[in-house]
Amino acid sequence: MAYNLFDGFPQPYSLAEAEWWCGGGHREPQFGFVWGIEVARPGGGDEIIGCISVEPQHGLWASSAVLGYWIGQAHWRRGITSEALGLVTAWAWAALPQTMRLWMPIYARNAGSQAVARAAGYRLEGTMPLAIRKGGYAIDAVQYGLTRPGAQPGEHRLPPIS
Ligand SMILES: CC(C)(COP(=O)(O)OP(=O)(O)OC[C@H]1O[C@@H](n2cnc3c(N)ncnc32)[C@H](O)[C@@H]1OP(=O)(O)O)[C@@H](O)C(=O)NCCC(=O)NCCS
């Protein structure tokens, strides 16, 4: 999992780090809005199997927000993250009126994440050779993005900040 996540994602991921994250670390402002991805257990009850986040940007990039996601390997390839990304994208358009653009930087080697982005309607916008530092290497990234439905590229007047 950590292989395709940013260098700050703990590796190895200790129990203490999990307790910090679930106990309130995910509410630290630098992570933006964070949700647990929950599935129903076969025997009953629910289980958190991953996370998805939207992080509104600041300064020059304040009309953008960056998304991130991961789920546990036992749940891969069931369409769960694609569904979660679709739901969070719809939430962002409704809840973040200053956000005109959602995007994610993805490691070029991460075919799964790129497929998730496409499945949720995001488009490949470009490649960023050697843009990301990961485990002592500079590696290629790709950028997937989406603009607010109905907003034309060029210039778009923002709503007043309430
Ligand atoms: C990438 C990741 C989020 C995919 O989650 P997932 O729930 O398995 O994805 P989905 O089941 O919604 O799959 C969506 C599409 O991706 C494809 N896909 C998923 N994993 C894939 C892989 N490893 N290689 C190629 N395609 C893959 C699926 O086949 C599906 O394609 P389709 O729409 O054409 O049928 C998951 O593997 C993960 O958490 N990886 C580690 C963390 C990570 O990479 N996070 C993203 C950082 S940018």
Describe this structure as you would to a colleague.
The structure is a single chain. The protein has 162 residues and is an alpha+beta fold. It has a single domain, classed as Aminopeptidase (3-Layer(aba) Sandwich). The protein is 20% helix and 35% strand. It has three helices and six strands; from the N terminus they run H-E-E-E-H-E-H-E-E. It has helices at residues 15-22, 80-95, 111-119, and strands at 33-40, 46-56, 64-71, 101-107, 123-134, 137-147. The chain has a six-stranded mixed beta sheet, with helices on one face. Helix 2 (80-95) crosses helix 3 (111-119). Residues 1, 4-5, 69-71, 76-82, 104, 106, 110-113, 115-116, 119 line the site of coenzyme A.
Top keywords for this entry?
20% helix, alpha+beta, binds coenzyme A, 162 residues, 3 helices, 35% strand, Aminopeptidase
Under CATH, the homologous superfamily reads: Gcn5-related N-acetyltransferase (GNAT)
Strand element count:
6
**Broad CATH class:** Alpha Beta
Helix content: 10-25%
Summarize the structure in short:
This protein is α+β, with helices and mostly antiparallel strands and 162 residues long. It is built from three helices and six strands; from the N terminus they run H-E-E-E-H-E-H-E-E.
